[in-house]
Design goal:
By secondary structure, the chain is of the alpha/beta class. The chain is built from ten helices and five strands. It has a five-stranded parallel β-sheet.
C-alpha cells in the first residue's frame, strides 16, 4: 500500500505564493489544504485538529494573538514559515524557515519540520486542553500519528530515496541545486552580520542537504563557487578580499551540523549504526 500522505494546513494569503507551494508539493507525499488566515483560522484548525499533520505559514499571516490562541488550545504543529529569513520566530522554536525564492526545497523542509517537532518534544503540547476531558483519549495523539505514517521514530530515520538528489530528473536536480546555492548565499551574507538569520539559513540548507542526500563534495563546491564569485566582485570594485578566508568557518559550521544529523539518523540500537551513518560522498568503513 502507498504511504499515507501528510495533510498540511496552508495559511497563505498571497495567491501566487499559494499556487507556487501547491506546484512544488504536487505529486509528493503531502496533501495541502488551504485555510483562510483572514477567517478565524484558529477556530478552523481547532475544529479540524484530527485532520492536519503540519502547517505551512506565510510570514505575517497570523498575529501574535492567533499564535498564542493556538498554543493555548494545544494546537502546536510542525511548521514551515515562508518568508524572509530574519532570525525571528513566528510560531515556535521548532519551525523551519524558507524564503519564497527557494520553494524547490519545500517538501524537504516539511520533512525537517516534522523531525524537529518530534525531536524537541513539542508533541507534549499537542494534546487537547484539560477542559476537553470528554474527548476520547486517542483523539489528538499527533506524535503517534506522525510516527505511524513516517516510520517508527519519525522521518529522521526514514528518508525517501526517490527524492534523493541523484534520483531526481535532471531538470529537478538542477533546480534543487540552484535553490540550495541561493540558501547558502543567504547564509554567507548574514554569517557575521546577523547570526540569528544566518542560523535559520544554515538550518534550511542542512535540512535539505540531509533529506536530499546532497554529496559532501557538492556542498564544498557550492561554498567555493560562491566565495570565488565574491572574490572576483570585490576585485572589480577595488576592495580587498583577504577576509573571505574567514568564511571557512561557515563551511565548517555546515559540516558540523550535517555530521550531527547523520549521527542522529540511525537509531542507537541499530546494528553497526556507526558504520551506516556515513555522510554521502564519504568512503565506507566496511
Amino acid at each position: 500500500m502507498p504511504e499515507p500522505a501528510l495533510t498540511i494546513a496552508s495559511l497563505i494569503r498571497n495567491t501566487r505564493l499559494q499556487e507556487a507551494c501547491s506546484r512544488w508539493l504536487a505529486g509528493g507525499h503531502c496533501q495541502m489544504v488551504w485555510v483562510d488566515p483572514a477567517r478565524n483560522p484558529v477556530g478552523e484548525l481547532d475544529q479540524r485538529r484530527d485532520e492536519f499533520d503540519a502547517v505551512l505559514l506565510e510570514q505575517g499571516a497570523l498575529d501574535r494573538q492567533n499564535y498564542q490562541s493556538l498554543t493555548d488550545l494545544g494546537l502546536l504543529l510542525p511548521a514551515v514559515v515562508i518568508g524572509e529569513v530574519s532570525g525571528q520566530i513566528e510560531f515556535h522554536d521548532s519551525e523551519v524557515h524558507l524564503p519564497p525564492d527557494q520553494l524547490e526545497q519545500l517538501s524537504y523542509s516539511l520533512d525537517a519540520a516534522v523531525s524537529r517537532f518530534l525531536q524537541r518534544g513539542l508533541v507534549s503540547a499537542g494534546s487537547p486542553p484539560a477542559d476537553q476531558a470528554s474527548a476520547p483519549p486517542d483523539r489528538w495523539k499527533l506524535a503517534n500519528r506522525l510516527k505511524g505514517r513516517l516510520g517508527f521514530v519519525g522521518v529522521f530515520y526514514k528518508r525517501d530515496p526517490a527524492r534523493f538528489l541523484r534520483n531526481l530528473p535532471e531538470i529537478d536536480r538542477e533546480e534543487l541545486v540552484n535553490s540550495l546555492e541561493r540558501t547558502y548565499r543567504d547564509l554567507l551574507l548574514s554569517y557575521f552580520r546577523d547570526p540569528a538569520a544566518a542560523n535559520q539559513a544554515l538550518e534550511s540548507f542542512v535540512n535539505t542537504a540531509f533529506f536530499s542526500d546532497l554529496p559532501i563534495t557538492k556542498t564544498v563546491e557550492i561554498h567555493m563557487n560562491l566565495i570565488d564569485g565574491f572574490s572576483k566582485q570585490l576585485k572589480l570594485e577595488g576592495h580587498k578580499n583577504d577576509f573571505l578566508q574567514d568564511y571557512r568557518l561557515a563551511l565548517l559550521d555546515v559540516m558540523a551540523h550535517l555530521c550531527e544529523m547523520y549521527r542522529r539518523s540511525i537509531p542507537p540500537d541499530a546494528p553497526f549504526a556507526g558504520l551506516q551513518a556515513q555522510p554521502p560522498g564519504q568512503p565506507s568503513m566496511a
